[in-house]
Prior knowledge:
homodimer; 388 residues; alpha+beta; Creatine Amidinohydrolase, Chain A, domain 1; 2 domains; five-stranded mixed beta sheet; 10 helices
Amino acid sequence: MPDGSLIFPAAEYQRRVRALQGEMSQHHLDALLLTTPADVFYATGFLTRFWESPARPWFVVVPSNGDPVAVIPNIGAELMGRCWISDIRTWDAPDPVDDGVSLLADTLISIVPNTGRIGVPMGQESQLRMPLADFTRLQDRIAPRKITDGTAAIHRSREVKSEAEIDKIRATCAIADAAFANVPEFARQGVPLSQVFRNFQVALLQEGADWVSYVAGGADQGGYGDVISPAHERPLRDGDVLMLDTGAVRDGYFCDFDRNFAIGRVGDDVHRAHAALYVATDTALSSLRPGMLACDLHRIMTDELTRQGAVSCGGRLGHGLGITLTEWPSVTPLDTTELREGMVLTLEPGVQITPNRILVHEENIVLRADGPELLSPRAPAEMPEIRE
Amino acid sequence: MPDGSLIFPAAEYQRRVRALQGEMSQHHLDALLLTTPADVFYATGFLTRFWESPARPWFVVVPSNGDPVAVIPNIGAELMGRCWISDIRTWDAPDPVDDGVSLLADTLISIVPNTGRIGVPMGQESQLRMPLADFTRLQDRIAPRKITDGTAAIHRSREVKSEAEIDKIRATCAIADAAFANVPEFARQGVPLSQVFRNFQVALLQEGADWVSYVAGGADQGGYGDVISPAHERPLRDGDVLMLDTGAVRDGYFCDFDRNFAIGRVGDDVHRAHAALYVATDTALSSLRPGMLACDLHRIMTDELTRQGAVSCGGRLGHGLGITLTEWPSVTPLDTTELREGMVLTLEPGVQITPNRILVHEENIVLRADGPELLSPRAPAEMPEIRE
């Protein structure tokens, strides 16, 4: 990591801010107020695990012209000072009386005219990372300036990745791929799933992850039940299907893909399910093009699963990926987001083997003008078997 | 982890819900709406790393009487079904048109009378983990029911830990203590700090952490600059002070403490600073009592630092700890929260060695009737030296 800050040259962030300002202009926004780790990192390069503490709010204001202004707790001044922006305003946080509200209000008042509009992401997949009572106080303080929905500006900018970003995601995918190659070393019969999860995280770190924000998975006879539970303590046994799924992070960028392993001998129904998922993914890889909608991609994969005689297990079959584990759009029948060149997406079809057993397969791609380019090295066509 | 869910017997959660309902009654709340990983885990035992995905909101409604109701994406039904509550309502999320708002509104309408008040945490350290536009829609849908600030109810309940919770935090502290004992094995001169961070996370996992939500630190000549930056690539060298700070997690409970190491020979000013921090912590350990305020604890430590001839480096000198890395209160001059028996706190004095170099020392305690009990095994009085 380049000196633990910035990650990219300043020009990358300047390009992003210009993109944001282009979108803001279309939506008649005089400023954009960002409060989340991902949005702040996107605009400034400010990357820290300190967000794990809910104690303090952090703000970045993107004006309609010029560079962003950081309004942050003074504990972050040193790190933000090594990022590309120069206007950094701090307060002694946490302050139970006024936790940055006055400083933020003064900043917005100095930037936005009386009749102006300030965008805050309010739509799907967004969160406001500041206390709600402080947000109400802020609205009162900056009136008659109006706060309005700024989701589209941040979505349309962030969703198309630069080549520099794509390189970062590809590098994180390579780390996960190398860690997956080590799984047969430690995922033996008799080892508790919880220990497999620990060893997998160790492998990700040893292969170069800065940290491991997400590991999930499952292991059970002939498939698994759900894919979001913490690991159970039951040892792996012959006939289990083991799935490991990771969102590891390097330089602030995530991968998000899984791999399945047969522990000893698994049934033909499992192999058939894996084959169907593999073909459905291949079909998406060969037919997806920019201009299609997220729901089109959903249809491509479910239609192929049906052709293969498999039952899709519902839910979304993929999503955006980048500086959070999951980003918009959602590959569902209802999401009509246009898939654009430069978007990084997961393809994540799942099938139901029995009413309580599913199998999920995942790859990461970037959408190019002529179709998807894999960022995760393609899974083997046959599910690997881990034998004693 | 007991079957990857629940963590504690149902009675523990029932006790918590009764505590919440007692606070709700005092604040005239007919229901409490919880949206964050910590609050949902606290009330239900629902623990998953899936919160890492910002795609879907999750809701738990605590009524004034009876058990909580979960209103959650269907992907979580299986795991929530293994928790202690039985009323679980799901929708097919993410839904771009209605992402749980109608289901949540119907639930609140069925529980809360027309004239009723619904508490939502809005105060310091709180966040609303749902899109703001959906929150506005919800308010419209449930009118004339009012949403009001429910921070006090959740704070007064969560801040006093049960013995079962204290045991969990002590266990996580023991894991970190064992990992710190391994630091001299890998933090040698010539090893880049980024590699030290990776190895430390590996050690935490190998000692039994389920995952590592937070590692920070620093290493530089005669102290470090800030404590929130990602690791730099510079190799450790003679005269560096290395600090590692971790919020590892086991069974959903955090530790949060640091340790300092002298890489080779460090100056007397560093040893003096360490001694002052050690004495200031001892003074807090011997004099803190229930009924004191957070600001009193701040004064105890800063006064002792002054007596030791050290310069306190400002900011907060400790905070609550439990199911998030940091919880209220904040050990600052402004925080007048009463420190109560059963609170788990960090003691985190820091001193300025030179204008650009600080040293921070941290322990975790539970406040008993007769004073603090250490949960982190006490740091050595002398900073350990790592020699070639």
